[in-house]
Amino acid sequence: MPRMSTLNSPYLLGFDGIERLIDRVSRSSGDGYPPYNIERLPRNGGQATTLRITLAVAGFTKDQLDVTLEDNQLTIKGKQTEEPDREYLHRGIAARQFQRTFVLADGMEVGGAGLENGLLVIDLVRPEPERVVRTIEITDIA
Questions:
Q1: What residues contact residue 141 under an 8 Å CB cut-off, 6+ apart?
Q2: CA–CA distance, 61 with 124 (Å, rounded to integer)
Q3: Is the Cβ–Cβ distance between 57 and 119 less than 8 Å?
Q4: Quick count: other Cβ atoms within 10 Å of Cβ 96?
Q5: What tens digit of pLDDT does each residue of 84-103 get?
Q6: Beta strand 49-56 with 119-126: parallel, antiparallel or unpaired?
Q7: What sign does the CA torsion over 132, 133, 138, 141 have?
Q8: How far apart are CA 78 and CA 57, in angstroms?
Q9: What is the tens place of the pLDDT at every residue in 2-32?
Q10: pLDDT-based confidence at residue 37 (cuts at 50, 70, 90)
């Protein structure tokens, strides 16, 4: 059965990429690990809009975390390895791997990432775009 397009208006031209993004996000993992926050930081004067993603990654070191940006997809991966020389009497904290993906809007840039007290903080910046008004010349069609 064909799926009904959410962007099927004849006035929305070239938005097929957005539909693919919506499909990709809707199929992403529903796993809640690691927990995360997304917040908008207050603007100071004419600064760009800044968003902050904070992930709770207790037990991970910088070497066990990987943050990559490919096209508009921000991916955070964490990989802990088992330590075979340890003998646990009780194992309540598992060495767990994760992958969390965020799709960024065009124009969003990663401002930086930091790890402190078990929290991985990634700042995203969206500079204010220049407003461009262009007059299109109308020519005769032969």
A1: none
A2: 22
A3: yes
A4: 12
A5: 888 889 988 777 899 999 98
A6: antiparallel
A7: positive
A8: 8
A9: 555 666 777 777 777 777 777 766 666 567 8
A10: very high
